Amino acid sequence: MRLDKFLANHGMGTRTEVKQLIKKGSVQVNNEVIKKADYKLDPETDVVLCQGEAVRYIDELYIILNKPAGVISATEDHLHDTVVDLMPEYRHFDLHPVGRLDKDTEGLLILTTDGQFTHEVLSPKKHVNKTYYAELDGTVSEETVAKFKAGITLDDGYLCMPAVLHIIKPNVIEVTIQEGKFHQVKRMFQAVGCTVTYLKRIQMGDLKLPADLEIGDYREMTAEEINRVQHV
Q1: Which of 88, 117, 139, 205 is deepest in the core (most CB within 10 A)?
Q2: Is residue 194 within 8 Å of 147, Cβ to Cβ?
Q3: Helix 223-230 and helix 115-122, axial crossing angle in degrees, nearest 10
Q4: DSSP conformation letters of 96-155
Q5: β-pair partners for 199
Q6: Burial of 82 from C-beta contacts in 10 A (0-12 / 13-18 / 19+)
Q7: Region class of 189: left (phi > 0), else alpha (psi between -120 and 50), else beta
Q8: Apex CA 75: angle with CA 198 and CA 56, to 5°?
Q9: Cα–Cα distance between 95 and 90 in angstroms, integer?
Q10: Given phi > 0 = left and psi -120 to 50 = alpha, else beta, which region is 217?
């Protein structure tokens, strides 16, 4: 990889800015000052310092976010704050959300640069479970549990795959689905005469939303966490 591209990709500045840093002798590769922007390096093995600071090589990035309400699951928007806006230190990475949560929905959202990971997690063939906690205006019963298990028909006639409904209280539930249709959880409960007043995703695959991740907080995922989502 070209040195200037490596530095720009890892947040050291624009291509023009990093070229100036290189020209000034502010960049070292394996303890040797490099002044050529087109110097070819091996990002996996070479040690790069920029203005004395080690630049950590990142091949693919995986971020777990406890999404707050009021933020949309997109990379950019002219009217609303996006989930990418919440993490300015990662803006230079080409992050995208793995699926989406509605603007008013909170909880577990993954952002990544890895398109193949996203494809695998969202593929209907993978059947990756997504579990939500919801509070309802209305009540559910064991009869509702049976309806969800059989498959709820939405307002447009779409028949949902079987879902697992767990009743905490008559108006407080957890529901596990495998699809991600537009407003699906809300529409499923509308079909049984309830309105969702609060919705939070708490699990994807075998990965639960970490208890210590406050609303609006985020961090890079561990390899084990990535596997918990992928390999279910």
Answers
A1: 205
A2: no
A3: 40
A4: EESS---TT-EEEEEEES-HHHHHHHH-TTT---EEEEEEEES---HHHHHHHHH--B-T
A5: 134
A6: middle
A7: alpha
A8: 110
A9: 8
A10: beta
Helix ranges (DSSP H) in 31-173: 115-122, 142-150
Q: Which amino acid makes up residue 22?
A: I
Rounded CA separation 130/125 (Å): 14
Q: How far apart are CA 82 and CA 103, in angstroms?
A: 9
* Amino acid, single-letter form, for residue 40: K
Dig out the tokens for 8 from the structure. 């720009």
Under a CB-based contact definition with an 8 Å cutoff, are residues 181 and 195 in contact?
Answer: no
DSSP-derived letter for residue 74 is: S
Type of residue at 144: T
Distance from C-alpha of 136 to C-alpha of 157, rounded to nearest angstrom: 23
Query: Which residues on neighbouring strands pair with residue 106, listed in sequence order?
Result: 200
Within the chain, what is the greatest distance between any pair of CA atoms? Answer: 72
Q: Which of 85, 102, 114, 212 is catalytic?
A: 102
**Contact between 62 and 220 (Cβ < 8 Å):** yes
Beta strand pairing status for 130-137 and 164-169? unpaired
Q: What is the DSSP letter of 14?
A: -
CA pair distance 66, 29, nearest whole angstrom = 37
Reading the block at residue 101, the tokens are 């949560």
Tell me how long the chain is: 232
Q: What is the mean pLDDT of each run of 10 residues along the chain (232 residues)?
A: 89 89 96 96 93 88 97 88 92 88 96 93 86 98 98 96 97 95 95 98 96 96 91 56
Is position 102 annotated as part of the catalytic site?
Answer: yes
In angstroms, the CA 41 to CA 35 distance is 13
